[in-house]
Amino acid sequence: MATVTPARLRWGALVWLLTLQFFVLEWVAEARYDRPYSRVDEVISALGAADSPGRQLMNASFVVQAALILGGALLLRPALRGAAGRVAPFLLGAAALGVLLVGVFPTDGNGTMHAIGAVLYLVGGGLGLIALAYAVRPRSEALGTTVVLLGLVATAGTIFFLTGVVGLLGEGGTERAAAYPLPVALALTGVALAAMARRGEERPDAEALRAERAEEEARRA
User: Fold this and answer.
1) What is the rounded distance in angstroms from the CA atom of residue 133 to the CA atom of residue 80?
2) pTM score, two decimals?
3) What is the DSSP track for 177-209?
4) 143-149 long-range CB contacts below 8 Å, 24 or more apart?
5) Is 183 exposed, middle or buried (0-12, 13-18, 19+ CB in 10 A)?
6) Minimal CA–CA distance to 174: which of 24, 20, 44, 35?
7) Could you tell me which residues come within 8 angstroms of residue 4 by beta carbon, excluding any fewer than 6 positions away?
8) 69, exposed or middle or buried, with CB in 10 Å at 0-12, 13-18, 19+?
9) CA 200 to CA 196: how far, in whole Å?
10) Which of 106, 128, 133, 219 is the most buried (most CB within 10 A)?
11) Which DSSP string do the residues of 48-96 spell out, in sequence order?
12) Residues 6+ away with beta carbon under 8 Å from 113
């Protein structure tokens, strides 16, 4: 198990904070759209399609997002506790793979791979946040509660989007309810863990190591 150090937490926090780049580049791609773009009626992937002037920027944002999600998960893995802490990186890794496929295969290119990527991102992201919430809850009840609520919103949005139950939110709005919570929650988690490191609350303490060893021994027994 890698050591939890303040420096590692700060780097991980920065990487997850940078996932907010998605919102900035989405707005830029939308601003370059040839016609009025509706966030209610049109999905995010439309900004990366061939008829979008900002397609290269949007698809690059998807690819960068994949690296940021996975990079932060790997850097911050030692700060995550319990079984949920072991599961969360795998689910977030699935989300990272999904958004990578979305960026590499635009919706009007290889539609099958794009759809697989979108499902991986939405399902992995929502469930990954729920696991992440339980992994950080021992450190901060408020952070865990906030992240699990965002995870539940993302999961509910995913179910409604994939089943076509979009209501007043429309297809685009429902997809955003499913997709947006992930970068928001990752940024909040990273900043919170870095703040704990600055306050000296996060350290490679012997108690945490003993707890992890006890869990390992219990599994082997």
Assistant:
1) 9
2) 0.86
3) HHHTHHHHHHHHHHHHHHHHHHTT-----HHHH
4) 143/188, 143/189, 143/192, 146/185, 146/188, 147/185, 147/188, 147/189
5) buried
6) 44
7) 78, 79, 202, 203, 204, 208
8) buried
9) 6
10) 128
11) GSTT-TTHHHHHHHHHHHHHHHHHHHHHHGGG--HHHHHHHHHHHHHHH
12) 101, 104, 105
Tokens of 179: 């997709």
Q: Which two three-digit tokens encode residue 160?
A: 């409604």
**What token pair was written down for 1?**
């198990």
Rg (CA), the chain: 18
Domain range list for the chain? 6-199
Burial class (CB in 10 A: 0-12, 13-18, 19+), 185: buried
Q: Return per-residue pLDDT of the chain as tens, 221 residues.
A: 455 677 888 899 999 999 999 999 999 999 998 888 999 999 999 999 998 999 999 999 999 999 999 999 999 998 898 999 999 999 999 999 999 999 999 998 888 999 999 999 999 999 999 999 999 998 889 999 999 999 999 999 999 999 999 989 999 999 999 999 999 999 999 999 888 777 665 444 444 555 556 666 766 76
Q: How many CB atoms lie within 10 A of CB 39?
A: 15
